[in-house]
Specification:
about 625 residues; alpha+beta; five-stranded antiparallel beta sheet; 21 helices
């Protein structure tokens, strides 16, 4: 019997064709069920709604247990675009939400704009309108059944118990594309900390999101929880923070600085905890909450007084004579002077050039020089250090600069707030470059000895010097968070920093500062039952009137507060810096201002130095 070879070949062709069809079917089925997110999202969204449950953001308290920042409910209009009927009644929705049709169309376009909403998908929940009022929320809930695909997402926004401390507390804002890309915790429409503690402690405050899975019918109506909610995840609230801030003192400082440009920083020397951090002009933190946040923020940005600029940690100022204690410490440590070394003052430093000074006894030693704020003494000290025989100005200035860095100048101190400035302490390379390789000496840079010239410092750095002298030779990194609920504070805030300067030299400088209060430039700070030590500063300003500065601490033998006050364009240090500083010290230690000093308080509360100063550059 002859084989039919054609029939045999046909069998293999048909078999191969069947195998090919099966393979194509399997591949397509795999794509539909596994690889194609669109179909998967479609299938899931047809049956389920995964709704995020936002956690309560952590609360903030001051050091005395006063509640500062808490939460209030807010409602966002959400929708799943695929489930929204093409012919839904836009007019009815506008009436319910109390908005115009044009406003709704703009919000709809913004929602679908990938630049504004990079996470847009027709199959996932999208935010259309945020921060509904209670009234609008109530009306929408009653008529939500008319708008398939729409639902209301509950979340919380911030509320403040005081209009003070906005620069410390910060605020929250809606995330942008960079936030979403950087951290997979966020999705479009979420909120994140912006400025202040809200930003620097965002990971602690935000908590952990929860989720509930709801079933939908064929018409998109919610039927209840999937499997009675056994797959739901409860949110975890953010951690509460206890701040080191004394809000009563913060509020008082902001009242004293009203009508002025500048800052106040107060520190507890024994811990580095910041008691107040005043910047002026400032703003009410509640302005950056709710529907009007964007408009209010834009107005604050445009404001020529720069209320968003935190002068307490961002402004770099010439420290003026508050810098002189650092020079005395360096000169003692380097053996340039002793407590009995005398320098002449012929109404200033006179040595091929002249740096003026006010009248006082001459010659003068270190402690009286601090008492009277003698410019000549510190100019002579720097000259004898920088022009030391057997060395070079380059090497000597590097020594000087290293001492300054150890005392907290020239670099960020590391406060737990964003955008701290480092100030500026010049080094030898800076001057070699400035003088283009030409020889330079102490006279070339003599103004740095009295906190002028190229030297710049933040009010925080000046206050930290006060804390270091109060402690007689050490400081802790300044910080505004005292406790984190259920967590330990970063160990760096418990680490003691000790410049390489003998403790007894700090005692000498402290005695000079006490003399300044008892019978020198800080006499206004002499309180009858509190021993205060202080140092004035009158910082020269090429843009206008001089700045008024004060740095001090109290009580002298058991310091509880170190403070720096900086008032721009307010003249002598004794005019505004000392009175405001002494009032802050008295308020913190006594709780009230004595009747004998009410006149000083009234003058500081009602004075206005902005009207004559204008707006200055920083």
């Amino acid at each position: 019997m002859n084989k039919d070879f054609n029939l045999s070949n046909r069998k293999y062709v048909i078999g191969g064709f069947i195998v090919l069809l099966v393979c194509i079917y399997i591949v397509r089925l795999f794509n539909l069920q596994v690889a194609e997110d669109k179909y998967k999202e479609n299938a899931i969204s047809n049956a389920f709604l995964r709704r995020v449950i936002y956690p309560a953001r952590g609360l903030m308290y001051d050091r005395n247990g006063r509640l500062l920042v808490f939460n209030q409910p807010a409602y966002d209009v959400m929708l799943i675009p695929k489930d929204v009927g093409k012919s839904f009644d836009t007019i009815a929705l506008c009436e319910v939400l109390n908005i115009t049709k044009e406003e709704l169309e703009r919000k709809w376009a913004d929602m679908k704009d990938p630049r504004r909403n990079p996470g847009y998908s027709a199959y996932t929940p999208q935010k259309l309108i945020s921060h509904l009022s209670q009234q609008d929320y109530g009306r929408l809930q009653e008529k939500l059944y008319l708008f398939p695909g729409f639902f209301v997402q509950k979340r919380t926004i911030r509320q403040y118990s005081s209009p003070a401390g906005a620069n410390i507390l910060g605020n929250i804002r809606e995330v942008n594309a960079n936030d979403v890309e950087r951290d997979d915790y966020y999705r479009s429409g979420d909120y994140t900390g912006d400025l202040g503690i809200e930003k620097s402690y965002e990971n602690v405050l935000r908590g952990v999101k929860g989720e509930e899975i709801l079933m939908k019918n064929a018409h998109g109506r919610i039927q209840g929880k999937y499997e009675n909610g056994i797959h739901d995840r409860a949110p975890e609230s953010g951690k509460n923070l206890t701040l080191s801030i004394d809000m009563d003192l913060q509020e008082y400082g902001e009242r004293l600085m009203a009508g002025k440009i500048g800052a106040i920083v107060a520190i507890e020397p024994s811990t580095g905890e910041i008691l107040c951090l005043v910047t002026s002009p400032n703003y009410d933190p509640s302005l950056l909450v709710g529907k009007e946040r964007g408009k209010n923020y834009a107005e604050l940005v445009r404001n020529p007084m720069k209320p968003l600029y935190d002068r307490s940690i961002q402004a770099a100022y010439p420290p003026g004579s508050t810098f002189k204690p650092t020079q005395g410490l360096i000169f003692l440590q380097e053996g340039v002077v002793t407590t009995s070394t005398m320098y002449p003052c012929h109404h200033g430093y006179v040595n091929k050039l002249r740096v003026g000074c006010h009248g006082h006894a001459s010659p003068i030693s270190l402690k009286p020089a601090l008492q009277t704020s003698c410019n000549a003494y510190f100019c002579w000290g720097l000259k004898n250090m920088i022009d030391k025989r057997g060395s070079t100005p380059y090497k000597q200035l590097e020594k000087w600069k290293n001492y300054m860095v150890e005392m907290g100048y020239g670099y960020r101190l590391g406060i737990d707030l964003p955008s701290e400035s480092r100030g500026f302490i010049p080094n030898s390379d800076f001057y070699s470059s400035s003088f283009r390789g030409a020889n330079w000496s102490a006279n070339s840079i003599i103004s740095i000895s009295i906190g002028q010239g190229e030297v710049l410092a933040t009010p925080l750095q000046i206050a930290n010097l006060g804390a270091t002298i109060a402690n007689r030779g050490f400081f802790y990194t300044p910080h505004v968070v005292k406790e984190i609920q259920g967590e330990k504070l970063d160990p760096k805030y418990k680490e003691r920093h000790s410049p390489h300067i003998r403790k007894d030299y700090y005692q000498v400088v402290a005695e000079g500062m006490r003399m300044a209060v008892l019978g020198g430039t800080c006499r206004t700070a002499n309180l009858p039952d509190i021993a205060v030590a202080g140092k004035t500063g009158t910082a020269q300003n090429p843009h206008g009137r001089d700045h008024s500065v004060f740095m001090g601490f109290a009580p002298y033998d058991n310091p509880k507060i170190a403070i720096a006050v900086y008032v721009e364009n307010a003249g002598f240090g004794a005019a505004y810096g000392v009175p405001i500083g002494s009032l802050m010290i008295e308020k913190y230690l006594k709780g009230e201002i004595s009747p004998a000093r009410k006149g000083i308080e009234e003058r500081m509360l009602n004075s206005n130095t902005i009207v004559t100063s204008g707006v200055k550059k920083h």
